[in-house]
Structure formats: C-alpha cells, structure tokens
Fold Trans-feruloyl-CoA synthase (EC).
Amino acid sequence: MTRSPHGPADFGLGSWPARRARISPGRTALVQPGRTRTYAELADRVERLAGALARLGVRPGDRVAYLGVNDVTVFETLFATARLGALFVPLNFRLSPAEIRYMLEDSGASVLVHSPDTDDLLAGPLPETLRHVVATDPASCPAGGLDFEAELAAAGDPPPAGVRLEDPCLLLYTSGTTGRPKAAVLTHGNLTWNTVNQLAHLDVLGTDKALCIAPLFHCVGLGQITLPTLFKGGSVEPVAKFDPGAILGRIGEAGITSFSAVPTMLEMLCRHEDWDRTDLSSLTCVLYGGSPVAERVARAWLDRGVKLLQGYGMTEASPGVSMATHEGTLDHPVAAGVPHFFTDVAGLGPDFTPEPLGETPAELLVRGPHVFGGYWNRPEESKASFVDGDWFRTGDVVRVDDDGWAHVVDRVKDLIISGGENVYPAEIEAVAVRLDEVDACAVVGVADERWGEVGAAFVVRRAGAQLGEAAFRAHLERHLARFKVPKYVQFTETLPVNATGKIRRVELRARAAASFPNGPA
C-alpha cells in the first residue's frame, strides 16, 4: 500500500490557491452571478481572510464553521482556515436549529461564518465556545456579529504557514441516517490523495468549467469534481440552489464540462421538460455518488452521449474508493467500477481479517492514504471502525465480477435474514423500479415470529399510475426468489430522505414495526 510522504512545511490544502496563482494567476477560479475570482484574486483574499481569522484568535487545531449554501465565500473560508492549520466545519443548512447547535457544540467551533439564507437557524442561543459570528452579508449581522468584508479589509498578515499533509483539515459530518451524526476528521493528506486518485481516473483539464451543484457540506460536492478542477486550474461555479431547469440552461449557456451530483439530482434533470432540447455536448464527464441510481436514469444520460460515471465512496475515504471507467460504463451502467489508483480493497473474512473480494458478497474493507484516521472525539467508535490495523470497515456489502468491476449489494445493517436466508433490500428495490409505474421503492426488515424477519416494501407510484399490490408482487416474483419478495407492501406518497437524498431507513423501520403485525406468516 502506498503511504503519503511528509510534504514540505507549507504544503496543504490552504496552499492550493497560492500555488495555482503562481502558475495561472489570470485564469478564473470561481464564478457566480455578479462575482468572479481569478486565482490571483482568490489567493489574495484567502491570505487576508486567514489574517482576519488569526486576529479573531483562530490558531492551529481550532475549528471554523460555515453555515450556508454553495458560494464563493465557502471556498475562501475553507482555504483560509486550512491556511492557518485550523479545521473547517461545513454545516448542513437543511437541518434544524437544534441540530446546528449540536454540531457547533460537538465540534467546539470558535468562529462561525454564515450566509443570510441561514439567519433563522441562528435565532436561538448559541454555544458558549462560539466566540465570533461572521456574516457574509452585512444586512444579516446579528447583534455583536461581524461583517465578512469588513474583517477582510481590516486584516493584517497571517502567521507563517506550517501545515503538513498529516495535519487535520476538515470535520465532515456524516449524514446521520441513524442516531446523531459524527464528524470524520480528514487531513490535508487525505484530501490531497483523494484528488490525485480522481485525476488518475479522469481527464481533468485547466480549461474545464465545472458546476458545483452538490452541497459543499457533503463529500460528493467537495471531493469528486470540485477540488480536482481547482487543483488543475479550471473554473468552478458554485450553485446556491438546485433548480433542474436553471442547471440545464446553464450547461448549454456556459459550455459546462463537468459536475458531480447525487442520484436524485440526475433523475430530476432528465425528467425536466427542457431535457430533450438542452445541448449537453459540452459535458465531458458527469459523476454521481452518495447512493445507487436506477438503471433507467443512468441510461437516460448515456443515451444522450454523456459520459456518466458512478463514483463509489464514503465520507471516511475523502470520499473516493472506486469509480466506473468511460470504456466500461455502457456494459456496466450502474456498477461501482474499479478501485482508485492509491486504494487497497478487500473483503471482511469470517475471522475479521481481510480476504480477496469475489462473486460472494462480503463487507468491503478499504485502506489507503485518503482514508481517515477516526471520528472527532469518538475514540471507541474510531477503533471499532478498523480491523487488522488500518483496514476501514465500510459497512457496505459488495461483490466483484471476474472483470474486476465492483457492485454494491447493500449495507450490512440493512441486511434482512429471513428463515436463515440473506435478503438484500437493494436487490429488491432495483427490481421494483424497473416497473414504469414505480417512482421509488424502499425495503426494510420487520420482525416475524415464524421467519425471524421479513421484508416490508414502501412503494411510491408515478403520477397517474394505477399499480396495485397484486401486480407489484407479480413483477417481483418474476425476477426474484420467493423468499426475497416482501411480505408486506405499502404504497406511500413519498419516502423520508436526508439532505443528500439517502433514504432514512430508521424512520421506515419504525413505521413498519407500527404498521405490520408481528405474527406467523
């Protein structure tokens, strides 16, 4: 396994804008309506913001939080925080005030930068550890708050840089589908090696124009296209709000070459009324990750000639583990591809040691210089996440074909054991959405006195569809063994999802336990 070397004292994420400014100072780094930052301008503002944060007392190891939609100021704050050797904490603006307060308390952030669209989330009392609140819009400065631009104007020089690859850079909170979210600690080296992995897998150019539409508090938004494009000297356009029509229009208007997204975004885009008349010829790559995508959605993009690639990963891997290749995607439209260059993969053996992956599903183990070292202030959970030294337990069940392409079968915790047989909800869901009448489907386990567990399917019908339970079951029985067909079926208007589109199965399990009897089959 390749290990990251110790870099020079000033090598880290915070140095990226400054180094790029020396190579291509006049190129556009970031662009938004009414605002453009060349690499030279970005480097200058990052230095001044680092000086401002230092004047506010931020020191190496401190935490600086950001609450707001995708924006140029997110990048400026990220790079300035990293420049100081402090930790950047992007917060999910779709959460409640109580959840935001929990993350501020958990991270111990001393400074919070926020945009005006999040004012309501800061209406209540804030943690005592939070010494300064900085608003990017002076009109939304709370009492005692600071103005972002005024702080930049009054800033002095930051202290000398001294960031190493092994120093922590980012606290990225997991999506928290069960319990409260926990923060993965990603180092400068983790993020750098993930970028190198992406560039080994993809042809990213300094002339690329990337949209940043996935939220920057999520690993897809930050790691898959955005940082690699900035590393190469391309242009990134942060998008504050996901509007399918506006995104399609921007692709044709600006000649966008790439973006990363979560599957729900891809589906909304290809369903939009402007889809067929949008010019997609400028797109050289569209990456998606975070959860599987329905094959019909993948085919919709591939049929338009778009190079759509699934990237599989997780927050703890910064995030990339594997990715599809342009050469194999048509034959494997929804597969997770092959491992990244600096990534080792294995399966969890029965004695909790690594073993080769193959056709038999096994829990995936990952190691590499992009894999994190643990969770923030959670030593026991961190220790339990690794086996045999430095192999991270992903919690995902995968199988690998003879050609080396990986397929994510399901989450370990979502596995249903019914009558001694392993039932993977993802397999059932993939079959369910082949029906034209089915918009979405989620399957969870529910206790059963005879079989131990049985499946309960929650099905969302497409608008106007007349699908009934008998027809739905008949479809499943044509493609699945009988023991895999859920015992219970409930049609519903929507499925509960979190901010990144992942189904909140903990809610569905509670609904299933309350709705379906625990009796003999």
Observations:
- Confidence is low (pLDDT under 50) at residues 1-9.
